[in-house]
Amino acid sequence: MATIAYHRPGSVAEAARLAAADPDARVIAGGQSVLPAMKLGLLIPSAFIDLAGLGELRGIRVEGASVRIGAMVTHAAVAESREIRATLAALSDLAEGIGDAQVRNRGTIGGSVANSDPAADYPAAVLALDATIRTNQRTIAADAFFKGLFETDLKPGELITAIEFPVPTRAAYVKFPQPASRFALVGVFVAQTGGRVRVAVTGAAAHVFRLEALEEALARRFVPEACDAVTVAPQGLNGDLHGSAEYRASLIPVLARRAVQRVSG
User: Fold this and answer.
1) Per the CATH hierarchy, to which homologous superfamily does domain 170-264 belong?
2) Which pTM value belongs to this model?
């Protein structure tokens, strides 16, 4: 059995140095993605870099029209935060629907976003809300962050420190969950800020993406019926034992309609 080193850095700077020095090391936030991958034999890291002791990566701050969430804030904390519930309820609702209680109490927002799982929920919120990902080196716009299957714009030694969400006029997230895992078979996050609308889809492709046809239809008329005229092509979408590409394509406008209904009542 391979020996795996364990590091518990005392600062973000130390964690970044450790990660940059060893490309085969894996950063541990909540461990909800890394450990299952190891059990399946998909990952054999040389070392763990545990961020659990870094208080500087925790905390929720609401200032005016912005919600800033530290990378190590758990899904449960997002779901239960009175500040987030009061300003960005769609994000609290999303967090409340992730996995089960154990996953919500261990998993973190930064770990989920950095992992870029194709069926994760948070990437849809990041993209639809046009969030800013803050790292130990720079800020990254949501549109530039998600690159592919489990691939992001993060560089070696670059760690997410916080995610900053603009507060929209109205927003909602609706997903069709895979019954066992509660990952999104398809999830759609709709956000309106003034006259601008952004629609992000997760679970349907290799990574989260925006759907311009729905954005344009809802920008013209932000009503549930606007989604009915949008047809999504199945080409490039995921197909597996849980649902074909055609099935996922048909779900997208349906879930978008439900999201708009949720905030239009």
Assistant:
1) CO dehydrogenase flavoprotein, C-terminal domain (3.30.390.50)
2) 0.95
